[in-house]
Amino acid sequence: MIRVLLAGAGAMGRAWLAAIHADPGVELAGVVDLDPAAARRAAAGLPAGADVAVLGAETAADAVIDVTVPVAHHAVTTTALFAGMSVLGEKPVADTLARALSLVAAAEVSGRLFMVSQSRRWNPQLATLRAMAAALGPVGAVGTDFHRAPRFGGFREEMAQPLLVDMAIHAFDAARYLLDADPVTVSCQTWNPPWSWYAGDACAAAVFEMTGGARYVYHGSWCSPGAETSWNGEWRVSAQHGTARWDGDHEPTGPAVDPPDGQRSGIGAALRAFAEALESGVTPMGEVHGNVLSLAMVEAAVDSAARGRPVPIDDVLARAHERAVRDETRADVRAALRNWTDVRTALSST
Ligand SMILES: NC(=O)c1ccc[n+]([C@@H]2O[C@H](COP(=O)([O-])OP(=O)(O)OC[C@H]3O[C@@H](n4cnc5c(N)ncnc54)[C@H](O)[C@@H]3O)[C@@H](O)[C@H]2O)c1
């Protein structure tokens, strides 16, 4: 039985509460939120508080599920790791790539597991599409079309790059999983049509060169009324021996493949994988080292759109590393970051 603290009792925190209660191997030890009333409501009689280290000591919890807002991920996760707890964090790993690298080093120094939950990675239909892609021989291109028209109100309508920063990471991370490849360069344009209800750019088109040579092409919009795609987007894998397609909601079409293992999907599957990793010591999919390049794809796409030219991912990683070393407040984490000779190599070692 793994005892967890839930940090962040907002909209997504409620979904995590349900996932915790649905897993017989995981027990809720307490809830942390800056808003004491929200923490108490979610805790329903269990310990509640505003500080993850204090509540961790009080409850002897094994782990923290960090479902706070992205800007708080770095502080909450660092505190939890150095208080001796493992962490399962919501995407994005942090609000900036530099802080994500700091969290990688913090996981190394603390010796605790930090896994990032990218819920769509755990979609069994995506796993089937991945098996189809592998059966089709060398892949030339993978494409995602994502077109919706949500009226969120609030912060998303004020952000400079709402689609890339708040949404596209799901597709970018899924593309890495699908191709079993990492990004090399990106060329991206973003724009905002005259009818958009977003202040920032609600549309983006990005071409990534991936390791191995395949291209990943993302075309998305958050102000595209009519014929909306799935929230997962529509996918096409174009390979030497054929094509596989996925509408994002139903079984993909392509060559016959064995169904994927496991019944769970989404955050329930991520939670189970985290609990099993804590028991077995085996590194799970989503461990922080393996997740960071998905956030790098977002930051590089934003950078390419701003500069109006292709951007090498290694340049973005190097700049983030410099900033991470400069901004780090813990001496032990700064020393670990300084020891990295090359960020990509550091991220490939777990
Ligand atoms: N996987 C998905 O599909 C998906 C969907 C929605 C949100 N998310 C992610 O989930 C996370 C939370 O999103 P949300 O929509 O629930 O946000 P939210 O604003 O509804 O809730 C966040 C909560 O965190 C609390 N909080 C903020 N700073 C804190 C701190 N330092 N310590 C403790 N609590 C703190 C806030 O008081 C709030 O209650 C984000 O990282 C978001 O990207 C993922």
TrEMBL record:
Q: Which UniProt keywords apply?
A: Oxidoreductase
Please, which domain of life does this record's source organism belong to?
Bacteria
| Species per Swiss-Prot/TrEMBL record | Actinoplanes nipponensis
Residue ranges, annotated region (Disordered)? 244-265
Q: Does the keyword Transcription regulation apply?
A: no
- Its recorded name reads Dehydrogenase
Tell me which residues make up the GFO/IDH/MocA-like oxidoreductase domain: 141-244
Q: GO terms for molecular function, please?
A: nucleotide binding; oxidoreductase activity
Say which family it is in: Belongs to the Gfo/Idh/MocA family.
Gfo/Idh/MocA-like oxidoreductase N-terminal domain boundaries: 2-116
InterPro entries, A to Z: Gfo/Idh/MocA-like_OxRdtase_N (IPR000683), Gfo/Idh/MocA_oxidoreduct (IPR051317), GFO_IDH_MocA-like_dom (IPR055170), NAD(P)-bd_dom_sf (IPR036291)
